[in-house]
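Lab meeting notes turned into a lecture example. A postdoc, R.K., suggested we walk through two folding results consecutively so the class can see how the record format repeats. The first protein's sequence and structure tokens come next.
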Amino acid sequence: MDNKPENRAGGSTPQKKSDHSPVTVVKDPKSNMGLVIALIIVILLAAATGVYFFLKGERLAEEKADTEKELQQAYYDLDSIGSQLDEKILTIRQLGGDVDSLVAVKAELENEKSRLRRREINQTNQIKALKERVGGYKELLVAKDEEIKKLEEMNTELVAENTELKDTKNKLSQTISDLNNEKTELQEQVAAASQLKLEDFMVYAVNKRGKEYKNEFRNRQIEQIKIQFSLAENKVAPIEGKEIILRVLGIDNNVLFDVTRGSGTFTLDGREEFFTAKQEVLYDRNKQQVIFLYDKGSDYDKGVYKVEVYTDQYLIGKGNFTVK
């Protein structure tokens, strides 16, 4: 019999296991927990990074949208201000004000608009500067409103003064017109009053022996026709030489005309007329006698002959005689 050691507890002694049996590794629970925590931290960091970049992208998108909105608003403001500047330039020019500075400002504004259209302005500080310029343009518009108000007040005063001056001028023109009318009327009255008139008009036939026959006579009694009259006294007539023109009209209403006896033509009412004879006299405002002697020539037809006397293209008297 084999001698096996006895178990002190009174049981049999267990046999020793073979070296080739599998070995079970028992892990420490604390070590597993560390791995889990590390993994969670990594996940959280990744999530935080994703959230960070997402939020940053959102913020950048919002900033870009805000910038675009600000640029659009700036362009709208510049365009609106440009239209108002055009109105101010037109108004000030009509009111007689100086618009050179405004024209220069308008050109600068159009340049700003052009830069905006080309998107040359996109930085925050540039946009801020642009906003400040827009504010300056608006202040300029307000200042020009004040200038326009003053110009309108000045123009209102000028219009009132011009109206008053125009009224005065019209009244003066009317007064001058009235004076001219009165002067014209006076001149016409003086001219009418200064016209010469005939007195003591007589026609004679003078025969060969110098005997005179008054107003009615026969052909055999006529050697010459003697026409005698007086120029009446006229104190308003000018003292001057007068050309006295005589027309003798036969029974056929034709003028007795003979160039060899001094006949010719003169202008009467814009027409050229024949005259029988003429002579120059110096009129001195006093009554003075004038005598025409006209050689007979051939026999006269029987009938009534008319005699007209003119000076300065107006009729100063007339008469007639009869050949029997």
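The second example is placed directly after the first for contrast:
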Amino acid sequence: MSQGLPTTSYALLGLLSFGDDLTGYELKQRADSTLRFYWVSPAMSQVYTELARLTDRGLVRARQLDPGGPTRYQITGSGRRDLQQWLIEEPPDFPALKHPVALRLLLGHLIEPAEVEAMLVGYLAALAARQQDLQAVRDGLEDRWASDDPFRFPRLVADWGLDYYQAERDVVGRLLTRLRTQTY
């Protein structure tokens, strides 16, 4: 039975499940380069708080290779089993839409239509940049077809993210058209 940890704990356990041991800083870097596309990348302090919790529960092992050197963390067998149990037991939850651009659009009556349009155009540019960043990550995930390839699922998530950003760009493009033609 899983230990009822916060989702961030399971996200960090998952990042450690790829087989290497990482320092807290390296784990934060991995979170920043992966989680930011589809989950909240935790703050550095949160990474260390969660690592302490996971260590206390025996789900990760902390060790120092050199006295005074950085502490490195590795998922334990118990941690892997708990993570697997969480993956199986936790029901899928609908994501909460916390969309700052949608909020700003909701309040568009307070500013000029040209300012609303500029905001949406700027968001389109930001989406294109984020999509390009994710494409670079996806390009770095070698396509192998072995059933034991642990990166086959990160590739699927990257593809999902790329499709999401494209869909978001399509929606914003339609909103801009409606704004420009005053069909709203």
